[in-house]
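Reviewers asked in the last cycle whether our approach scales beyond single polypeptides. To address this, we selected a multi-component target totalling 763 residues and predicted its structure end to end. The input consisted of the following lines:
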Amino acid sequence: MSEFLDILFGLGDKLTAHIVLAASAIGLGIAVALPLAVWASRSRNVARVALGFASLVQTIPALALLALFFPILLSLRAVFGEGLPTLGFLPALLALALYALLPILRNAVTAQANLDPGVLEAADGVGMTSWQKLRLVEAPLSAPFIMAGIRTASVWTIGAATLSTTIGQPSLGDPIFAGLQTQNWALVLAGCFASAALALIADNLLGLIERGLARRSKVMWGGGLIAVAAGIIAALSVQFGGEEEDTIIIASKQFSEQYILAQLIGSRLEAAGYAVEYRDGLGSAVVHNAVASSAIDISVDYTGTIWTNNLKRTDNPGRKTMYQTIKEWEAEENGVLVLGRLGFENAYAFAMREDRAAELGLTSLEDLVRVAPQLTVGGDPEFFERPEWIAVRDAYGMRFGQTRNFSPTFMYNALTSGEADVISAYTSDGRIAADRLVVLEDPREALPSYDAMLMISPRRANDAALIAVLEPLIGAISVDAMREANFAVDRQEDKLSPKEAADQLADNIGL
Amino acid sequence: MLKFEGASRRYGDVIAVGSVDLEIAKGSFVALVGASGSGKSTLLKMVNTLEVPSAGKVLFAGDDVAAQPPAALRRRIGYVFQGIGLFPHLRVGENIAIGPRLAGETLSAERITELLELVELEGDMAGRMPDELSGGQRQRVGVARALAIEPELLLMDEPFGALDPITRDALGETVRELHERLGLTTIMVTHDMAEALLLADRVLVMEAGAIVADETPHALLAGKGGDTAQGLVAVPRQQAEKLAAMEASGPT
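The resulting structure, written as structure tokens, was:
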């Protein structure tokens, strides 16, 4: 409980970032939706198109919508120049504003459509111009309904804003995603609690404004409005109070190893006097693009990932050639500096419980083919789309009875609880030793290598001082050291935070 | 004062009003009577351009109404209609003052009280919201609002249609009296011939978009105006005769 409270009170900057993001998105949503609603009330076609578009947006999962803005903004750089941010606040703002559009627009259009025709005729009859009619009659009569729409949009937006963590915008999603990955439930709970509390407060204040408008009580809606404005202004002043210049931004993907390595790199840089910021829990595809576009400065990526996702290669030239090819390709194609390999691999492998493997008499993938039709295989959400799986499937003729998707963390739980017989594990995972799993051998070498590499953005690629600080990390981390650090974060009891694990890892490898 | 020159209104193939020629003198109280769908409301709304003629034109004080900015035109013409159309979010006083407010003037509290008293309401009603009033009171406020702009012309579209007979009768009297006192020109649309006969000094009967009779109440009662007009006059007359007969025969 005290851990939960400690975390909760430590969320101040995430909370203010969350408020600023959500408020801006709702503000932008209102600024677009209201004029559109007025236009829609004058033209049936506009109403149909606008509402259709807003509904269509609603059907896109929020997570996908957020991710979609990266390529959109990237292509818009052709128009707005290289300075256009592709990650962080801007795409989060645009995606959330788009999401907020529907409830506001729909309520505003419905409110206008349901205005008493007698009242509208009276407005014309007494000689109102169309602007006077809008200002004196339509707007005040629609206001309570529009406010209800804004209220719905606000609750959605505050909830969905937690997802902006995945595109590098700090929010209350940071503790949720970090906690989910490291199975630190206090973190998850604190993030959920804070965002739910924020949503409830916003809902109540906006509800007060709505009722105030409906009852035409200036005190009520004025008071509510002042409270909302005060909250936003307070968050803004905290957010933009202290400016830091020349901050190094370190990215991490959504698993423990990435969190630990980000902290390890960050600590070294901080010790060398750099200001550091973390963009934790980014989507895997987002990270590479972010480094290539200098939206972030440093990331750790894996040879096999870049090989298939970015070079679009399906062959397997062997560990060393693959690394060299990638290093040259990155320098040439993106200007990204691949500083070197950290020393360990985090490759895909098939793992089983030791007792189960013994019972079935399995030691390699060749043995597995025989019994696979009776077994359930678990993989992370992207695994069964990946060429690794296809390579294994084709090389061995592997057919499983059932396939299931799990988030990386839950995959291991599924294996221990028997919901899966085989999983697509990662070789650097601490749980392989801890859960007493066996990694099945790959005699036909279908699975490519996954060397961890340190990637530096084009913006920092020539920064000799920075590189000097990072150089000692190259070749320094053995797979055992990495497994131990990963397990320290992933285990259920006595777990360490990624930061603590990173410090311990630094000690272990003598840095 | 008001002149219709071949004014027509079509909706596709449907003729709501077909080529009406008509002149209305200043100071007259004209009733437009007809069944539902006879085109009487459409004809009335052509005056303040809530309906635009498909052909022909309407002249108000010598000028084509279609050639004037609609908002400015409507601020010179009082308009009262069945829906009443008080703005529900504005107080009674604010509703009455809306016309002058649109023109950028502020109506004094005294003038609002005066207008309320003109339609036989208490002056302190100005602070109330429309939904606190009875139907009759609301329609009186509607009349006060129309009078607030000191109109040259008062248009009333079934103004008393939704009211109970007693309220309706009283409000009719009030309007007729105001018409005299303020020297208004009034056009009232109604489907009730008795109301038209009692209040107006000229009755126009409409059928299928055309004016089929144009007579004084006395002439109509004397049997003039043709079959449609006489059909409409017959209803209240027979009712009155039956009532008189019942009264004469005593309780059965």
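The mean pLDDT of chain A is 88. We regard this as preliminary and will revisit it once experimental data from Aim 1 are available.
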